[in-house]
From TrEMBL:
<feature type="transmembrane region" description="Helical">
    <location>
        <begin position="373"/>
        <end position="391"/>
    </location>
</feature>
<keyword id="KW-1133">Transmembrane helix</keyword>
<feature type="transmembrane region" description="Helical">
    <location>
        <begin position="187"/>
        <end position="211"/>
    </location>
</feature>
<feature type="transmembrane region" description="Helical">
    <location>
        <begin position="151"/>
        <end position="172"/>
    </location>
</feature>
<feature type="transmembrane region" description="Helical">
    <location>
        <begin position="89"/>
        <end position="110"/>
    </location>
</feature>
<feature type="transmembrane region" description="Helical">
    <location>
        <begin position="116"/>
        <end position="139"/>
    </location>
</feature>
<keyword id="KW-0472">Membrane</keyword>
<feature type="transmembrane region" description="Helical">
    <location>
        <begin position="285"/>
        <end position="304"/>
    </location>
</feature>
<feature type="transmembrane region" description="Helical">
    <location>
        <begin position="246"/>
        <end position="264"/>
    </location>
</feature>
<feature type="transmembrane region" description="Helical">
    <location>
        <begin position="223"/>
        <end position="240"/>
    </location>
</feature>
<feature type="transmembrane region" description="Helical">
    <location>
        <begin position="58"/>
        <end position="77"/>
    </location>
</feature>
<dbReference type="Pfam" id="PF05940">
    <property type="entry name" value="NnrS"/>
</dbReference>
<keyword id="KW-0812">Transmembrane</keyword>
<feature type="transmembrane region" description="Helical">
    <location>
        <begin position="20"/>
        <end position="46"/>
    </location>
</feature>
<protein>
    <submittedName>
        <fullName>Uncharacterized protein involved in response to NO</fullName>
    </submittedName>
</protein>
<dbReference type="InterPro" id="IPR010266">
    <property type="entry name" value="NnrS"/>
</dbReference>
<feature type="transmembrane region" description="Helical">
    <location>
        <begin position="316"/>
        <end position="335"/>
    </location>
</feature>
Length: 407
C-alpha cells in the first residue's frame, strides 16, 4: 500500500479540518512573532511600533487565532447538536480566508502603520460576521428543543463581532484605551464563554461519573457555576469596583473550583494514555481555580495598600486555563475525527507538560524581579508548544482518516 501524503485539498473535507488549519497557522505565526519581538528587544534591537506593544500583543493573542478554532469546532459539532445535515467546509473557505488575511494585515500594521492594522481588523471582522450569520442560519433552521449551548455560543459570537469592530475603530482613532477595552470585551464576553460552553459539553464524556454533584445540578445551573468565576475575574480586571468587594467572592470561587478538581482527581486518576485527556482537561480547570485565587490575593493586597500581582492572575487564566483547554480539546477533536485513538500518547503528553512549564515561567516573569529572561523563556516554551502541536496534530488535518472512513 502506498503511503498517504499531506494534501491541502483535504482541508476542505470537513469544517474542523479547515478551521483548525487556519487557527494553527495563525497561532504559529503569532507565537513566532512574539518570540522574535522579545528576542530582538533582549538584543537591543527593539522593533518600531505603530500600535503600543502591550495592546498589540493582547489583541492578537486574544482574537487573532482562537476564533478560527471555534469555527472549526462549532461548524462540526453544531449541526449534530441541532439535528441538521453537516456543513460543507467549502462554505467556510472564503470567510476564513478573509479572517486570516485580515489578521496578517493587523500583524504587519501594528509595526508599520495603524491604518493598515485598522484595515486588517475590518477585514477580519467582516469575515467573522459572515461566519456568525452562517451559524445563525443553522440555529434558525433547527427545530430541536435543546438548543441552549448553540444559542449561548451565538450570543458570544455576536460579542466577538462587536469586539473586532470596536478594535477597528480604536485603531483608526489611535486610541490605546479603547483598543484595550475591545480586547477585554473579546476575552470576557466572547472567548471565555465559548471555551466554558465547549468544556461543559465535554462533562458527560469525561467527568460525569467523577462529578455526580455537578451533573446533578442540571444544565443551566452548571453553566452559571462555570461562568460565575470567570465573570468575577473579568470584572476585577476592569478595576471598576473597590478591590475589597471582589476579593472574598473570588477566593470562595477559587476554593470551590479547586475542591472540585481534587474530587475529580480522586475519582478519576490519570492512569495510562486513556487517563491523560481527562487529566489535561482537569489541569486546565485547576489553572482556572489558581487564576481566581491569584486574582483574589492581588485584590487583597491592593485593599491594604500594597502592590498587586500585576499580570500574573491574567496569564494564569489565559495561558494556563485557556491554553490548556485549547490544546486538550483541539487534540481530542483532531484525533477523534482523523480515525485515531483519542488517548493522549507520549508526544501529546510532552506538549502538555511543556505548556505547564511555559505558564510557570510566565508567572515567574510577572512576579519575580527582572523577569525579562523568564518572559523570553515563556515565549519560547509557548512557541515550542504551538510548533509541536501544529507539526503533529495540524499535519493530520491534511491526511486521510487512519481508519479509512470518509469525513
Amino acid at each position: 500500500m502506498r503511503p498517504q501524503h499531506w494534501d491541502p485539498r483535504r482541508l476542505l473535507g470537513a469544517p474542523h479540518r479547515l478551521g483548525f488549519a487556519m487557527g494553527a497557522g495563525l497561532m504559529s505565526l503569532m507565537a513566532l512573532w512574539w518570540l522574535a519581538v522579545l528576542a530582538a528587544s533582549a538584543l537591543g534591537l527593539a522593533p518600531g511600533w505603530a500600535v503600543p506593544p502591550v495592546q498589540a500583543h493582547g489583541l492578537l493573542f486574544t482574537l487573532g487565532f482562537m476564533p478560527a478554532f471555534m469555527a472549526g469546532f462549532l461548524f462540526t459539532a453544531g449541526p449534530r447538536w441541532l439535528a441538521l445535515p453537516g456543513v460543507e467546509a467549502h462554505v467556510l473557505l472564503a470567510p476564513l480566508l478573509q479572517f486570516g488575511a485580515g489578521w496578517v494585515a493587523v500583524l504587519f500594521g501594528v509595526h508599520l502603520a495603524s491604518p493598515l492594522a485598522a484595515f486588517g481588523m475590518a477585514l477580519a471582522a467582516v469575515g467573522w460576521l459572515r461566519l456568525y450569520l452562517s451559524f445563525a442560519a443553522l440555529l434558525r433552521a433547527s427545530r430541536v428543543p435543546g438548543r441552549l449551548h448553540a444559542r449561548c455560543m451565538l450570543a458570544a459570537w455576536a460579542m466577538g463581532v462587536a469586539a473586532m469592530l470596536l478594535a477597528c475603530r480604536a485603531l483608526v482613532q489611535g486610541d490605546a484605551g479603547q483598543l484595550r477595552a475591545a480586547t477585554q470585551l473579546g476575552l470576557w464576553a466572547f472567548v471565555v464563554p465559548v471555551f466554558v460552553l465547549a468544556w461543559h459539553r465535554m462533562i458527560p464524556l469525561f467527568a460525569a461519573a467523577a462529578l455526580p454533584r455537578l451533573e446533578a445540578l442540571g444544565e443551566r445551573r452548571q453553566l452559571l457555576l462555570l461562568l460565575g468565576g470567570p465573570a468575577l475575574m473579568g470584572l476585577a480586571q476592569q478595576a471598576w469596583l473597590p478591590p475589597c468587594l471582589l476579593a472574598l467572592p473570588l477566593a470562595l470561587a477559587a476554593l470551590a473550583l479547586l475542591a472540585l478538581v481534587l474530587r475529580w482527581r480522586r475519582a478519576q486518576p490519570a492512569l495510562g494514555e486513556a487517563g491523560r485527556l481527562p487529566a489535561m482537561l482537569r489541569g486546565g480547570f485547576a489553572w482556572l481555580g489558581l487564576a481566581l485565587a491569584l486574582q483574589a490575593l492581588s485584590l487583597g493586597l491592593q485593599a491594604v495598600g500594597r502592590p498587586g500581582l500585576g499580570a500574573a492572575p491574567l496569564h494564569a487564566f489565559t495561558l494556563g486555563y485557556l491554553g490548556c483547554m485549547l490544546v486538550a480539546m483541539a487534540t481530542r477533536v483532531v484525533a477523534g475525527h482523523s480515525g485515531r485513538p483519542i488517548a493522549i500518547d507520549r508526544i501529546g503528553w510532552r506538549i502538555h507538560r511543556l505548556l505547564q512549564l511555559g505558564v510557570l515561567l510566565r508567572l515567574a516573569a510577572a512576579l519575580g524581579p527582572g523577569g525579562g529572561v523568564a518572559l523570553l523563556l515563556a515565549a519560547l516554551a509557548w512557541a515550542g508548544v504551538v510548533a509541536a502541536w501544529t507539526l503533529r496534530y495540524g499535519f493530520w488535518l491534511g491526511l486521510p482518516r487512519a481508519d479509512g472512513r470518509a469525513d
